[in-house]
Specification:
The structure holds 2 protein chains of 2 kinds. Chain A is an all-alpha fold. Chain A contains 18 helices and no strands. The chains are: A mainly alpha, B alpha+beta.
């Protein structure tokens, strides 16, 4: 990559903030319409009762919890990948980290809504929050749902901070170049960033602390999500493999989401010179590793259950392998392994198109995986007399569609207000490592201003 | 000494008449959901009679098994509830505190017996059925989990009566609706802490088994059933 001047970088990365096209507004309106439809469906559910969803006895969790696990999983893209790449000092990470961290914050916010959406009495969701109340009891700390509450709120705060810290210098840059109302807004947002050596030093330290702190938090979040299932004595749930299996799956789907998001940004924001084929190639390799790891986990889980031959587990096992849910199971294997593996393993196919196709497969496959973990196990618990099936209703389908629309919409909006690629980090990247001196960078900034 | 309420169900006596199911509905204000919703798995029967068939037609043997909340001592439904709606009482019952329930349905997923029932909609009774509601039992609203209570209202009434008369609760004095209505007396209810009570004696029978006892849930319902192994030992 030929080094770019700060002016070139400013020009390319701040261009999306300059204005919106008619096409952008139309697409945004479409996504907004789907989001509104989702909220309407939720309102419908509140008004008529949770019965308008397809859940039933014995499948008390369906699409909602599938979406919950899926979106929380997807949120592992950003923070985790970005933190690891930062700590490993992988220099190619610079244009990638922020679009990854944004996925985390939005996916997490979407996912965190589902424990509320799925409640029978959603209006009482705050009873999950520990606070001294007239009810005279605290929430039950033995319940994995309460662990969820703590894990997700910690992760949301942590990943939010991790996203916002390195945005500050860019907000200041936008502030310095803006006029009028925009200048006022960005002045508030930049909370007094002036780029003094002391500020740079503090930012560096804070980023280093956050990068280390956020990794165990991210791992704990999806472990705890997996324990929502593993702690219950339900066939095929009650397993020690669940926590690492879920964490691996989360990172897997997260990388896939990141690749898709980057491809969209590259195309629509014309960032061809910044999001290079090399980035897709590198992330593609990571995706390949996770695909293999995922396949290994599935194999290990399935083999142990099959060899153990426990009757109640085998009922669920065959339900997914050859029974009612087998089409979904084999679609999942195809999407998560059979398609991505050749696309990512063969160097010639590991192009932008190749990695994007693989990633779309992985996102679909990982959604199916979450569904297949939850629904078949619940539908075939121990007593055959109360076996049942599950079919989603339009309410659940609409709300699910709305989550994807919400993700796209939030991402579109974000990229119009904040540079989606970290400007200052990219400028640092133009220099050789020894020259990564904040004071010099500040001089660069001054030269451009 | 506090009571530990338990039950014995003699499967060799059960005829599958479902009188217990009807009695339970009447006693506990369990709303019916209609044909359509029942087909969608929303029916609520705190006690149900499971039917299992052995052999090929026409040489078929039918087995009936009434299944209700087993009031487990190590109940999987209890620890998973984030709001303590599913709660163990000092008398060993798994009580469900409707007011605390926010409807996560986690308890119902964790329950291996599938004996927890969810109100997918607000309950409704066709007139004049609303006039026959039991005033001792609260009606559950939408989004709340409900389940067998061993007729807690009857237990409490019995205990209060005994206390007023300054005596202990007599064995057999308290009967849940299902036990009371069983024409073959297949069900026996009583205090497991009293070794001389009928339920304690019957629970010790060598015909006794616990439903899914291998899961370690420590159910307080014992099923009695002839089996060839014990028959040959008796002989």
């Amino acid at each position: 990559m030929t080094p770019k001047t700060p002016e070139q970088i400013n020009e390319a990365l701040l261009r999306p903030l300059a204005g919106v096209s008619a096409r952008y507004l139309i697409v945004l309106a479409c996504f907004l319409a789907v989001v509104i439809a989702g909220f309407t469906a939720f309102g419908w559910q509140i008004y008529h009762g949770i019965g308008v969803a397809g859940i039933r006895r014995p499948v008390f969790w369906g699409f909602y919890i599938t979406n919950f696990v899926f979106w929380i999983g997807l949120s592992h893209a950003g923070t985790l990948i970005s933190a690891i790449l930062r700590l490993a000092n992988a220099t190619w990470r610079r244009p990638v980290t922020r679009c990854a961290e944004v996925i985390t914050v939005f996916a997490l916010s979407i996912g965190a809504m589902f424990p509320i959406v799925h409640l029978g009495r959603a209006w009482l969701f705050f009873w999950l929050v520990p606070y001294p109340s007239e009810r005279g009891i605290w929430p039950n700390i033995r319940s994995p749902l309460l662990w969820d509450f703590f894990a997700i709120s910690t992760y949301l705060l942590g990943s939010g901070t991790f996203l916002l810290l390195p945005i500050l210098p860019d907000l200041a840059l936008v502030r310095d170049r803006a006029t009028g109302l925009r200048k006022k807004i960005y002045t508030v947002l930049a909370i007094g960033w002036r780029g003094t050596p002391r500020q740079w030093h503090r930012l560096e330290t804070a980023m280093r602390i956050m990068a280390i702190a956020v990794i165990p938090v991210a791992v704990s979040v999806h472990s705890i999500v997996s324990w929502d299932f593993a702690m219950a004595p339900v066939p095929m749930w009650h397993s020690t493999i669940f926590a690492p299996y879920f964490v691996a799956g989360a990172i897997f789907s997260g990388i896939a989401a990141l690749i898709i998001a980057m491809a969209c940004l590259r195309k629509f924001l014309h960032l061809e010179e910044y999001l290079l084929p090399m980035h897709f190639e590198n992330l593609g390799k990571l995706l390949l590793v996770m695909s293999l790891l995922w396949a290994y986990f599935v194999f290990a889980e399935r083999l142990t259950s099959w060899y153990g031959n426990e009757p109640s587990e085998m009922a669920v096992f065959w339900l997914t392998q050859t029974g009612r849910y087998s089409p979904l199971f084999w679609t999942m294997v195809t999407c998560n392994f059979l398609i991505p593996f050749p696309l990512l393993a063969i160097k010639k196919l590991r192009t932008i198109t190749g990695t994007v196709i693989a990633s779309v497969g992985v996102v679909i496959g990982m959604w199916l995986e979450r569904f297949l973990i939850i629904v078949p196990a619940l539908s075939h618990k121990y007593l055959p007399y109360s076996w049942g099936t599950y079919r989603p209703t339009w309410v659940e389908i609409t709300i699910t569609a709305a989550t994807f629309a919400a993700m796209a919409m939030l991402y579109m909006l974000f990229s119009k207000f904040i540079p989606i690629i970290s400007v200052w980090e990219l400028k640092w990247g133009q220099h050789e490592e020894p020259e990564r001196d904040p004071v010099l960078l500040r001089k660069d900034e001054e030269a451009t201003a | 000494m506090s009571h530990q309420w338990g039950m014995v169900i003699d499967l060799d006596r059960c005829t599958g008449c479902e009188a217990c199911v009807v009695a339970c509905h009447a006693e506990n204000n369990i709303s019916t959901v209609g044909e359509d919703q029942a087909a969608r798995g929303r029916a609520k029967h705190w006690i149900r009679v499971e039917r299992y068939y052995e052999g090929e037609f026409p040489d078929v043997k039918v087995k009936f098994m009434p299944v209700l909340c087993q009031q487990c001592d190590a109940a999987p439904c209890e620890p998973v509830c984030p709001t303590y709606a599913s709660h163990h009482t000092t008398e060993g019952l798994n009580s469900q505190i409707y007011n605390r329930c926010i409807g996560t349905r986690y308890c119902a997923n964790a329950c291996p017996y599938n004996v927890r029932f969810f109100n997918f909609y607000n309950p409704a009774w066709d007139k004049p059925l609303h006039l026959q509601l039991n005033p001792d039992v609260s009606v559950r609203t939408v989004g709340v989990m409900e389940k067998c209570t061993f007729c807690l209202q009857r237990i409490k009434a019995g205990e209060i009566q005994a206390e007023a008369e300054k005596r202990e609760v007599k064995d057999g004095e308290i009967q849940p609706a299902c036990v009371q209505s069983c024409p073959t007396r297949a069900m026996v209810f009583g205090d497991l802490n009293d070794p001389q009570s009928e339920v304690s004696r019957m629970a010790r029978s060598n015909r006794g088994t616990k439903l899914l006892g291998e899961l370690g849930t420590l159910p307080k319902v014992t099923y009695l059933q002839r089996d060839s192994w014990n028959d040959s030992k008796d002989a």
